[in-house]
Design goal:
The protein is mainly α. It is built from 14 helices and no strands. Helix 3 packs antiparallel against helix 4, helix 5 runs antiparallel to helix 6 and helix 9 runs antiparallel to helix 10.
């Protein structure tokens, strides 16, 4: 894990110049969504600079606590090709940009936004590079602890709140008791909803009934149905969109993210072969497969 004591002098210089400038151009716009490039330019601190820029917009959040929190989360996120701190940074940025470009920020309180942004940043925190199916089949410690139910997502929640309960990392310190309860409940709900096992039901029961069909969607006076929804729903849509949203990025960016996800999947297959578990493709499948390319 990267050190949580601070940024190296080289990274600090980049942060002050190139990375910070690029970060500013990325926020609130779809013109530049290349978080992987930002990760490289900032020498591994894309979550730090995006977190300070987006979460730090709330003047009530203590800047020192926020920086400590982001550095700690970065350092312990997980050394995975896909589920690393840069993925948390990408989901944070995309969540904000979705809300901003769809004019939804005005429907959310500062507590809603703080909880939503924190959830986006930490939704895969301390990721072991596996998946829920693997954890269940392996009867892992996490599977036993969470009774085979939404295992990794509950682990991400617990690990993140274990960090937040330390005063030096507590970005919720300015909230009242009731606001803190509200923020915690919302963070938990948003992270648990990133379990793809819950995706189909959410689409069928909550999202699809709201979406217009046919000519209604093309009317000049069309009004987004999102504007009449409650904050938890809006944030759930935003975070879920952001979590799997690299498919909407320019193809070259989508290809890079897909390569990372595929590599992580194959590593899990190698690990399972060594343990005689077979919930993921084996190395033999890896040699025989290829990713689809753009038409």
């Amino acid at each position: 894990p990267r050190s949580t004591q601070g940024v190296s002098s080289a990274a600090s210089d980049v942060y002050k110049r190139q990375a910070r400038k690029r970060c500013a151009n990325m926020i609130g716009s779809w013109d530049d969504t290349d978080v992987l490039a930002l990760e490289k330019a900032s020498e591994g601190h894309s979550l730090l600079i995006l977190g300070e820029a987006i979460i730090g917009r709330d003047a009530n959040v203590d800047a020192t606590s926020l920086r400590n929190f982001l550095l700690r989360i970065e350092g312990d996120y997980g050394d995975n090709p896909y589920h690393g701190s840069f993925h948390g940074a990408d989901v944070l940025l995309t969540t904000h940009n979705f809300l901003a470009t769809q004019n939804l920020l005005r429907h959310l309180t500062t507590v809603d936004l703080l909880a939503g942004y924190v959830a986006a940043a930490v939704h895969d925190y301390a990721h072991p590079g596996t998946n829920n199916a693997h954890e269940r089949v392996a009867s892992s410690e996490l599977a036993i602890r969470y009774s085979d139910d939404t295992i990794l997502e509950r682990h991400h929640c617990a690990a993140a709140f274990a960090v937040l309960r330390e005063p030096r990392f507590d970005v919720f310190s300015h909230l009242t008791t009731d606001e803190r309860k509200q923020a915690r409940a919302l963070v938990i709900e948003l992270i648990l909803m990133t379990d793809l096992a819950r995706h189909g039901e959410f689409i069928a029961r909550r999202l699809k009934p709201l979406l217009p069909r046919g000519f209604k969607a093309n009317k000049e006076n069309f009004v987004s149905p999102f504007h009449d929804q409650d904050p938890p729903f809006l944030l759930t849509v935003a975070v879920k969109f952001a979590d799997i949203g690299h498919v909407t990025k320019p193809f070259e960016l989508h290809r890079q993210w897909t390569q990372r996800a595929t590599e992580e999947f194959w590593r899990l297959g190698d690990k399972e072969k060594a343990c005689l578990l077979y919930t993921s493709p084996s190395p033999r499948d890896k040699r025989q497969s290829r990713m689809p390319s753009s038409a």
